[in-house]
Amino acid sequence: MIVEEYEAKSLIRKSRTSLFSWSEMYLNPYQGCYHDCKYCDGKSEGYYMHDDFANRIRVKKNAPQLLEEYLKKNGFFPINRKKTNSLVDYFPDLRESADTKHKGKFVIFIGGGVCDVYQPVEKEVKMTRKLLEIAYDYKFPVFFLTKSDLILRDLDLLKKINEDSYVSACFTITLADEKKQEIFEPNASTSQERFEAIEKLREEGIHSGVYFYPTLPFIGDTDENMNAIYRTAKEVGAEFVYCFGLTLKPGRNKNEFMQTLSEHFPDIYPKYEVLYGNKDKYGNLDREKFKEMGLIWSETKGYKLGYELGLGYSSERYVPEGRFEKNLRLSEILHRIQYLKNFYTKTSRIELNALNDTAQFFISYQNDIGKMDEEEIVKLVEKPVILPYVTDFLKTGESELLKEIEKKAYDSVYRYIAERKQEF
Ligand code: SF4
Fold it and tell me: What is the reported pTM?
């Protein structure tokens, strides 16, 4: 493995929230990933990564400075830092008030992008740890998604940040069988090690869940593998399992994956040729072929398993300091309804778009709807189709309609799976 340091021009990327992640800011100090997963989307040409993605790891050596500059420029203050070179070092009473001038905070996704921030190079370089120290100094909540138990090295800092605000340290786990996992994720921690790390983090009160993503058709979406992942996730105390299928973008991403299949699963290879033979530029499988082959969406099977085990289908949203609690809760509910309706009920595109647009609107709305009366809030909602969800939420601050939709989604996937299994 070659490690190469360079000065990056930028580090931070803002992002819209979704059920995948509630983070609004993504950053990553690395380019390239030694874990070398055979389905890695980061290898696709669209991300403009270098060819030897798995063997040459590029380190943004100025990442900590870039993060700090960004936070300072936006009016945030390192309230937890002992020495700040400012007046508060001499007047400790000013420390708390120095942190209140800013606008609201947000969850930082350390590792957002396409490279694992706890890959082996981090052991020596400690770039992720430096970023974590800054998050702690500035009292910012953080989110991680990794395939390495090296994250436990930073448990001391994670605990301190979690006490102050919030940490969600999640793991991608796709295959319970270690031999198969080694084929597709050769240099990552084993699935067992990742589950053990979740257990440890949960014992320390840190939020954690499983990203069962991607689910590999015929390999990872089997009943055996799915049951094992969901049940073990439950046993180790994961709060949720987020399940999502495989995309194979034409080019490096697909070529490398297919090469691995031909070497290790030659009998399954032809099925992938049919399923992913459509050359979709986003790498989505051919839905018609999927139906013809009598397959069941892994998301559907996963939703059923998760519901039966009492596991969430995504993490709960954390409301960072200085943000409007009710605005973000309402947007979370609308996002969830949109996700469920998109997958499990026949809902018009118009309604789905309206749900998404209204969710985004309330995230960025500059007034606290918690201090407004119902009439004023209702006037903000442009699309009448969304009103029932909004008024339902305003009654109690929770959503009875969301609970009903979750139950309906479960009934519908239950029926769908039973019918499908009878048919084929
Ligand atoms: S851990 Fe993530 S970024 Fe790294 S190779 Fe695997 S899929 Fe790609």
Answer: 0.94
